[in-house]
Amino acid sequence: MKEKRLLIWTVLASMAVGVGIGAFLMWPDKSFLLKADENTVEAVSVQAAAVKKGSLIQEVTGKGALEYGEAETISLPAGVEIEEIRVKTGETVKKGQILAVLDQSSIQEAMHVLQEEVTEINEKMEELQEEEKQDIKADLSGRVKNIYAGEEDDVQEVMLSWGALAEISADGKMAVQIRTKGELHTGDLVEVRSDGEETWEGTVEEASGRVYEITLTDDGPESGENAAVWDQKGNLLGSGVLYIHQPVPVIGHTGKVRQVSVKEGELIRKEDVLFVLDEEGETGRLALEGERQEKEEKLQELLRLAQEGNLTAGEERMIGQINAKETGEDERQQEDAWTVFTSFPTDEMRICVPIREEEILTVKEGQKAVIEVNAVPGLELEGVVSQVGTQAEFERGNVTYTAEITVKTEEGLREGMSAAVRIHTGEKKESLLLPVQAVWEEEEGEFAYTEKDPKTGKLSGKVEVQTGDSDGNQVEILGGLKEGSVVYYAEG
Q: What is the pTM of this model?
């Protein structure tokens, strides 16, 4: 809703009983005007203003309460106990200030536990290193034709993609299938020529109607290569794609390929090693190494605490909740670490403001805001939009979204104090502007007076105007008046 200042003009007249004495009385907060008729107003004190171009700051307003900034936790490793707490809730602590005195015996016990855990991890790693790697061996003699797995490849991924880690030719033959009108018989000799112009002698292995399978040596021809078949007289019989006549897949299940021990085209014997797999992969060792590093870092932290003997503040903060109990009072079992204190920044606070759905898209992170705190009249703080919510909230049929404003703290500010916020969302330049006092709002519309009688002060020339945005002091004129037009209105 556009903010406009409404001036309601009232005719007040009162007669004072007395000889030759008369006076006009005016109710508080009413204008110094006397309405003569519908289109004329007599004014006691009048100002003139011209419609002129200027900039209009666009704002979104809202109300909220001051809150402390984002909470942080101050924690201790599992097993470390507190001997004495040195701070209170709400206290502001300086960097390096002692927050609590630690129980040395609990630190030593925690260190002992961690050292034993590190020793166990080292032993597991030694066992892994001593274990033999898994070898994949040949189940039969033959020639390696296709190798699909490379070093560092995951076995399962290769199996999903190719169905095997490699393929072996078991009978020493490749084959090609052709369809021809010529008549061939099993055992007939033919010539097989690849795209690379290499030639091999072939034999008709099998016939099915006019479809013939031709076999040739597996030493040289590549699987998947195109080949043409010619008869002994030099006639082209047909062509096809070369394939392994009796392929045997090499299968794996889990792990990573540590080493490929053969090459394509190589002759192998039964029990020859084809691949060396790391069945655990590096996963097992890496997991143990990561766990060991984490525990060693905790040991370093415990050593530091043992030397200092105290838990100290890393920076200036305000202490919030205190969760710690002194030695002997806390029987909780902590698995990793436990929170001793929560703390808040001392240099900034925040305000969460509900914004109407019609305005939320104009609010962006980084926009400046002005905050007025009700408890400190006259104080204006400069803040910035630090977060704009995306989750809608519904209340009494209205939809709002929350904008978070961060503001530097000032002396005297307290959590929970109510505050009004104006967020600067933009600026309209080259707008036609008038003071808000110069525009009247009535049931029929909005009006301005363009004429004044210099003797009587009567205002006339009532003109209907169309207004736009307002910043509380100026209002945008969209129609009814032109740049330079002069209007008159009551002073104050």
A: 0.47
